[in-house]
């Protein structure tokens, strides 16, 4: 044994004393192989005792050289079924140093030959279901196999999701080294972004792959108050910085994201949004006209027949030649995206009412006429009917919504809180449809990301709920968008109420805390079988933490999102401004104006009510003249000159009935008075003459 470079020890039971006996005969340092445990010893530096049950492994030992004294042994495999394994470990006499390295959600490595299998701990218990302070405790850990680590020719660890060799009984389980943990979460590709830190090792960045996130859609789910909006803000900020072609449209029902992107977003609300009525398809316009209620089929048939005629009338005046260039007369339908005037539509309705024939349809014509007039006079729909002239403004609308030439503001926030709730679905349908078509016809020049906040409102799981065109528009982006550069981001606090088809199209999911079992089941169904156990602690993770899984991350990982600076936190600017003031500084007139959905100019024209003179107690005394104390009605909103004049709505009649025609009064007849007139009494001769006349007629 004078020049032996290696000494092989047959088993771990060989004591260090025996090994040192061999080493005394060696002339220089030797390497000792004991199974899979490699030690270094020499004549002057004997091998010290290496306890295989020692478990106090700190961060420095995880990064140590492979021959540094100490070990990371945690236990041995006692069962394996291909997807999961059970590990057994023993802690002597109540020692908790080993058990401290085991925790739910922690990654460990299982040595199999030259490779190492990565496992995720998702359950733990003792054999006796109690903890003994004075004797040994045998522990069992349930581990889910997530992938395999291999060393390349240069000695660097490489991770792959597949497993070539599964653990055998007795395989050694180690605490994971930092270099292995880094190899697992290292995407090893360009176009990655850091969104936070790993919870297992807060010194390591949590990264996502940007192209995978966009091409295959993503979702952020979590209960209220866990930080969904902050997480979405962080992700969107990383996305727009990585791709100059990307344009983001946020459907914001709570007016939160405008404050998160003060310099990078354009804000559209009911006063700045221009979505003309002629851009709505037939189903969308019917939903607006009937305020989300079930429409009358006969009235819908009237609209379907007259809207194409109104489009032809507009085209006939020479203001647009789109119809002549694109299609012939027979192909023009109510869904053809051509402008028309509401005045022409009302004129066609009036013309049909004045016809002698078609008596049975006239009640429906009057009803649809009244509905259209009421819609025109409703200030809440100003974003649809505010234009002073009708023209083909589709190019201007696309520029306003998606800003193709404004790289400084790639985000458009559409604030939906001011839009009537009964027609929000129709507006969302139009916006999502435009997003898909712009991405389609830009031929790769633009990439459109549509962010649907509170997505379960637009695409609910129950097919009987929701608005079908909205569901179809969002589903089209989810199913076909990746081919044309249209991406979808789904944000919801109730994934259980979301259409499973939409969620299944999101290949990357950031699952934050979910307390509802139904919501957890939906996320569990979207996970691969090898990662199901990660949902077991969805109900207990902290705020701003998430479990990310899917195409944009190499393995399911638990992360903590980076903190945003205060000026980038999403919040409702109006609510924040009102909450910061005192009760005496609230602008009541502005509050009332928003309640009435009136523009500032109209509200200023309306005089405020004043208390009657001489009233001692303004809270108890009533006005001397109630009618005189009421505020004047606001001035009517200006309408386009070419729109139909407002006329007083006629009272609705029951379908199928017409009022009896009144006979014309003879000339010189006097108008009837309210007091009935008694006829003059007849003489006997006059009475006999009338009786004789009746008998002759008989």
Automatic annotation (TrEMBL):
<feature type="region of interest" description="Disordered">
    <location>
        <begin position="566"/>
        <end position="585"/>
    </location>
</feature>
<dbReference type="InterPro" id="IPR002789">
    <property type="entry name" value="HerA_central"/>
</dbReference>
<dbReference type="Pfam" id="PF01935">
    <property type="entry name" value="DUF87"/>
</dbReference>
<feature type="compositionally biased region" description="Basic and acidic residues">
    <location>
        <begin position="638"/>
        <end position="651"/>
    </location>
</feature>
<feature type="compositionally biased region" description="Low complexity">
    <location>
        <begin position="602"/>
        <end position="618"/>
    </location>
</feature>
<feature type="region of interest" description="Disordered">
    <location>
        <begin position="602"/>
        <end position="698"/>
    </location>
</feature>
<feature type="domain" description="Helicase HerA central">
    <location>
        <begin position="194"/>
        <end position="434"/>
    </location>
</feature>
<dbReference type="InterPro" id="IPR027417">
    <property type="entry name" value="P-loop_NTPase"/>
</dbReference>
<protein>
    <submittedName>
        <fullName>DUF87 domain-containing protein</fullName>
    </submittedName>
</protein>
<dbReference type="InterPro" id="IPR008571">
    <property type="entry name" value="HerA-like"/>
</dbReference>
């Amino acid at each position: 044994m004078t020049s032996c470079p290696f000494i092989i020890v047959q088993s771990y039971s060989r004591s260090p004393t025996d090994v040192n006996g061999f080493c005394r005969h060696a002339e220089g340092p030797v390497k000792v192989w004991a199974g899979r445990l490699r030690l270094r010893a020499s004549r002057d530096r004997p091998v010290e005792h290496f306890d295989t049950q020692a478990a106090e492994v700190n961060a420095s030992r995880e990064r140590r050289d492979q021959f540094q004294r100490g070990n990371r042994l945690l236990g041995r495999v006692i069962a394996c079924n291909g997807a999961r394994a059970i590990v057994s470990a023993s802690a002597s006499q109540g020692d908790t140093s080993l058990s401290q390295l085991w925790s739910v959600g922690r990654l460990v490595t299982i040595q199999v030959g030259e490779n190492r299998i990565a496992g995720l701990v998702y359950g733990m218990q003792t054999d006796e279901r109690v903890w003994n302070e004075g004797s040994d405790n045998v522990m069992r850990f349930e581990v889910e196999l997530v992938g395999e680590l291999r060393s390349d020719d240069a000695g660097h660890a490489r991770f792959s999701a597949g497993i070539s060799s599964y653990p055998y009984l007795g395989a050694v389980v180690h605490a994971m080294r930092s270099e292995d943990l880094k190899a697992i979460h290292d995407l090893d590709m360009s176009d990655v972004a850091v969104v936070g830190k790993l919870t297992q090792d807060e010194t390591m960045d949590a990264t996502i792959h940007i192209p995978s996130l966009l091409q295959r859609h993503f979702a952020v789910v979590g209960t209220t108050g866990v930080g969904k909006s902050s997480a979405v803000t962080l992700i969107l900020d990383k996305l727009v910085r990585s791709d100059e072609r990307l344009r983001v449209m946020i459907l914001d029902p709570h007016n939160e994201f405008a404050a998160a992107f003060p310099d990078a977003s354009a804000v559209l609300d009911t006063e700045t949004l221009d979505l003309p009525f002629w851009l709505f398809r037939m189903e969308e316009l019917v939903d607006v006209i009937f305020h989300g209620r079930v429409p009358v089929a006969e009235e819908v048939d009237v609209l379907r027949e007259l809207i194409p005629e109104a489009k032809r009338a507009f085209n006939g005046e020479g203001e647009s030649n789109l119809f002549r260039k694109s299609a012939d007369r027979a192909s023009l339908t109510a869904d053809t995206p051509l402008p028309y005037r509401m005045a022409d539509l009302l004129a066609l309705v009036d013309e049909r009412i004045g016809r002698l024939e078609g008596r049975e349809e006239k009640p429906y014509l009057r009803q649809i006429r009244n509905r259209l007039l009421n819609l025109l006079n409703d200030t809440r729909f100003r974003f649809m009917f505010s234009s002073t002239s009708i023209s083909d403004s589709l190019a201007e609308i696309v520029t306003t919504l998606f800003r193709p030439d404004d790289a400084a503001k790639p985000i458009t926030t559409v604030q939906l809180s001011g839009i009537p709730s009964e027609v929000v679905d129709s507006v969302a349908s139009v916006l999502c449809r435009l997003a898909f078509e712009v991405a389609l016809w830009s031929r790769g020049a633009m990439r459109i990301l549509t962010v649907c906040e509170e997505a379960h409102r637009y695409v609910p799981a129950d097919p009987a709920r929701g608005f079908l065109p909205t569901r179809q528009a969002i589903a089209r982006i989810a199913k076909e968008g990746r081919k044309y550069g249209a991406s979808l981001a789904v944000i919801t606090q109730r994934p259980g109420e979301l259409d499973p088809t939409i969620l299944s199209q999101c290949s990357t999911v950031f699952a934050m805390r979910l307390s509802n079992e139904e919501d957890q089941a939906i996320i569990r169904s979207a996970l691969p079988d090898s990662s199901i156990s990660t949902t077991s602690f969805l109900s207990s993770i902290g705020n701003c933490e998430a479990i990310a899984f899917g195409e944009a991350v190499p393995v399911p990982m638990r992360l903590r999102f980076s903190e945003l600076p205060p000026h980038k936190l999403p919040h409702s600017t109006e609510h924040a401004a009102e909450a910061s003031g005192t009760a005496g500084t609230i602008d009541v007139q502005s509050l009332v104006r928003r309640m009435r959905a009136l523009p500032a100019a109209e509200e200023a024209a309306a005089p405020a009510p004043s208390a009657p003179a001489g009233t001692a107690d303004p809270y108890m005394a009533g006005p001397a003249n109630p009618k005189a104390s009421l505020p004047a009605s606001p001035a009517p909103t200006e309408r386009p000159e070419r729109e139909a004049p407002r006329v007083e709505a006629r009272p609705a009649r029951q379908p199928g009935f017409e009022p009896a025609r009144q006979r014309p009064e003879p000339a010189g007849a006097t108008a009837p008075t309210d007091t009935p007139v008694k006829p003059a009494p007849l003489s006997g001769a006059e009475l006999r003459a009338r009786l004789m006349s009746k008998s002759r007629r008989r």
